[in-house]
Amino acid sequence: MRRTVEILTGKAELCRSIMGALPDWFSEPEVIEASARAVEELPVFGYIEADVVTAMIALKPHLPDAVEIALIATRPEYHGRGAGRHLVDAAERFAHESGARLLTVKTLAPRGRDEPQFEATRRFYDRTGFIRAEVFAKLWHEDHPCLFMVKPLMETQLSRTAL
Ligand SMILES: CC(C)(COP(=O)(O)OP(=O)(O)OC[C@H]1O[C@@H](n2cnc3c(N)ncnc32)[C@H](O)[C@@H]1OP(=O)(O)O)[C@@H](O)C(=O)NCCC(=O)NCCS
């Protein structure tokens, strides 16, 4: 059975396990370790297939209006099977229930190199309804331009307008 659940314990270990299986995206151990420590403090949801947590998402609320996807990752052998989309849906529900109007994410911007894995990530966000809002060339590092993407949550916007 497939389902999305909130992960309450073992978040750091789950993060290390999934990010560590994705060396094409996360090659630096210190980045994985920093993420593992960070997700301990954040709401985390997992997608479960046959008792395996195949994917995770960590959310950073910037309330009242926005919720940021701090991390999303699917185990490589489960890519392209819908886990990521289910977790974006869970993020939207969380944001909606928190009263937010926007889901956001920061990812690596195109930087003139042949990097199909990062292009695949950007395509994933395109396909799940995110808009490429702005590139911040030096937010992270001059070699790592940041693409800021946003997904307006229309229902929340409409219900607020109606009030
Ligand atoms: C990005 C990632 C989380 C997507 O997870 P996933 O479980 O494979 O995604 P899904 O199977 O739910 O795909 C959702 C949509 O994105 C599209 N998509 C997924 N991977 C894609 C790819 N490589 N190229 C183009 N589109 C892609 C799918 O076609 C699908 O669209 P559709 O439903 O309209 O057909 C996964 O590829 C991953 O773990 N990447 C490495 C880590 C990463 O990049 N994290 C984000 C860091 S900012």
UniProtKB/TrEMBL annotation:
A Pfam entry, by short name: Acetyltransf_1
Domain N-acetyltransferase: 5-154
Gene3D superfamilies in UniProt: 3.40.630.30
PROSITE patterns noted in UniProt: GNAT (PS51186)
Recorded coiled-coil stretches: none
InterPro entries, alphabetized: Acyl_CoA_acyltransferase, GNAT_dom
GO molecular function, one term: acyltransferase activity, transferring groups other than amino-acyl groups
Keyword Lyase: no
Keyword annotations from UniProtKB, A to Z: Plasmid
CDD domains, per the entry: NAT_SF
Listed name of the protein: Vicibactin acetylase protein
Organism: Rhizobium etli (strain ATCC 51251 / DSM 11541 / JCM 21823 / NBRC 15573 / CFN 42)
